[in-house]
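Morning, I've got a small favour to ask if you have a moment. I'm working through a protein record and want to make sense of it properly. The fold is given in discrete form, as structure tokens running alongside the sequence. Can you walk me through what the tokens say about the fold? Thanks so much in advance, here it is:
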Amino acid sequence: MEFSPRSVQILFLLLKAKEPIKTSELAEKLNISKRTIYRELDDLERDLMKFNLTLKRKTKRGLEIVGDTKEKESFVELLKKSDDFDPRNKEKRHQLLISALLKEDELQKLFYFSDMLQVSEPTVSHDLEQLEQWFQKYRIKIQRKSGFGIGLSYEEADYRRVMVAYITKYQDDSFIKPEIREKIKRVVDQQKSGKISNLTNESYKNFILYLTISIQRIFQGKGIYKKEKEAKIEEQIDLLAEELGRIFELHISKMERVNYTFFLKGCKLQHVQRDGESVQVEDQLIPMKEMVYEMANSFSTELSFELKSDDEFVEGLIAHLEPTITRLSHGIPIKNPMLEQIKSTYKDAYERATQASRVLEKKLNIHMPEDEIAFLAMHFGGAMLRIEQRHRLRRTVYIGVVCSSGIGISSLLSSEIYHHFEERVKVESIAGDRLSSRKFSDLDFIVSTYPIQSVQEQVLVNLLLTEDDLERIEHMIEKYEYQEKKAVKHNTNVQEATLITNEINSIIKNFGFYRVDPNITFHEAVFQIGQICSENQKEAEKIEQGILEREALSTQVIEEYEIAFLHTKTTAVESSKFIVVLPEEGCFRNPYFKNVKAIIVMLISAHDMRDKLAVSSISRKMFDDDEFLEKIQKGDEGVFEIMKETLESYFNQFLIDAYGKVNN
């Protein structure tokens, strides 16, 4: 049989599919371009006829192999004998291999894994070699015993941490029993106080996940009783363990509680806290400020003095490092959703943070994961921006003053502005009809009592300057006095980059699919959306009101796209949010919805005054890309990755527009 390795992969995917597959989906699964797919298909159509099979191209649906079922099955068996048979991409294969190793308590022969993955034994062996480093990060070894097989060698505490890492990395919770997780969540929510109430959304989910894995393992007779490390068990953990023991009718040992304490200490908090000046690791006491100073020296010898003089940086990094050290010491995984963006966009800060992380690696005798380095880069990057701002020489800001009541009142306003801001400004009264004069082209901005046509930015004020007027003038002065003349754009870009990063982080963190009763009414759906997207009832009511007011102007049920696109600008959110509400089955049946398949919700902060927002790139993608919209309507997990790619492209385009290039 003369099929290329790539053709074998394409054929297998098509033969196993229950419905037509689009070319773009094939390209994504195999990590190749659509053009390559088309080249391979040219030969396949002719060759398939030899096996009484036909390749059909269905408009808007994709590709399908048509033929007798027995003929298809015979052809699949023939493909499996090919040395080039590899139905899944490497990443998916690695995921399945990790999953199989975690599930198996006994050693299994190499053939077991090769048969499961439908690949050759050498391919499995090579995959295992590549996975060894990933397991070693969690102190787990891949054990190979000649004549017996392959399996994992681990301590129970390490197994649980690698389970959290696996589920977080691959979003595969097939190991988890939903009924156990829901019971644990109810118990934690009832006792949600202290440190637990301060956890970030992601850390809260991971804490619930860790407790669920723990309870399931105890039920399997795999509890932790061995004394590994002594630690003071927090009172909150003791209360939680007692209640969990009562609910599940089992004993939660002291060492289980120690591990719960370590995991909680390693979680990220919404608001930073300082527990002390030193951290105990094994038998050594690490002075935190000294370590931060050492990291600053390693980050940059030129900037080290200024970094160590920046109290915001020092205190913030100490507060960040306390849970970080706990995570690193106990192998607790964490995911940084901005990792790839930080590595590409803030390349210099990331590389320097990598060097600074060597201080931690040496003291703790551990390997620093990329996700943790990216968090360090954010702290150092923020400090670098503050240092850069301090380095700029403050200059005099040139202000033009225009008044509808004439040059006399204009001069009075000029005098008031000058006396309020003194040497920070140079103020000049100007007649409105003279603004186009070349003489005034160097003005930084205009203060006016009425809207005017001008190339410069303007601040509208009252004839008698109010405190609010002075605050807005102050804000504009601050914008220009730390910039070189004719270099306004750069400072604005730095500020906007921070806003965009915060917005993207909010979208990624809050995105999710939510299932509701397909018979739900429009008002009931809006009520549910308010509850999902808010922290309290007051915010929920604001969201509901905003969506309903927007709907009253013009319905957002878009029948031709089979979606309802509900969006509003509201003070109930601090940054953009994007979620999808789907019916539990089929489509929404209430007549108002006109059989739409998905309710797409986009909330924008009323505090965000930018004209262009990152979340808009997702809505554009949704209307431009039929496949993306289909994935949204189906609740496909691939939506999250497409969203991240779209947001990253938006951010990179911003950098190109602002700075002319993107560092790769």
Notes: The chain has 27 helices and 15 strands. The CA atoms of residues 580 and 600 lie 5 Å apart.
